[in-house]
Design a protein that fits this description.
mainly alpha; single chain; 84 residues
Length: 84
């Protein structure tokens, strides 16, 4: 496979050096990160709130599936119950 499609002759390489933030740059970066966290928390809160409202509307339309109308249940007259 390599003989059919040989590797490229030139390879692009990017070199970088990490320089730690200090002083005002570090403070500005930390404030920016804190602001991002607050925005994400607010978005998550609004999303949860919207999801809760939607589920309440759906629940109100469907009703509670666990509620059993005692008048319509068929209970044997001898009082025997079958549990599942």
């Amino acid at each position: 496979m390599l003989q059919v499609d040989p590797p490229p002759k030139a390879v692009k390489v990017t070199m970088s050096k990490r320089i730690p933030l200090v002083g005002d740059e570090l403070k500005a970066y930390e404030e920016e990160q804190e602001q991002i966290k607050k925005e994400e928390a607010l978005k998550a809160s609004l999303s949860k709130e919207e999801e809760l409202k939607t589920s309440r509307v759906v629940d109100a339309n469907v009703g509670d599936p666990m509620v059993i109308d005692a008048a319509s249940s068929h209970v044997p007259s001898d009082g025997m119950y079958v549990c599942f």
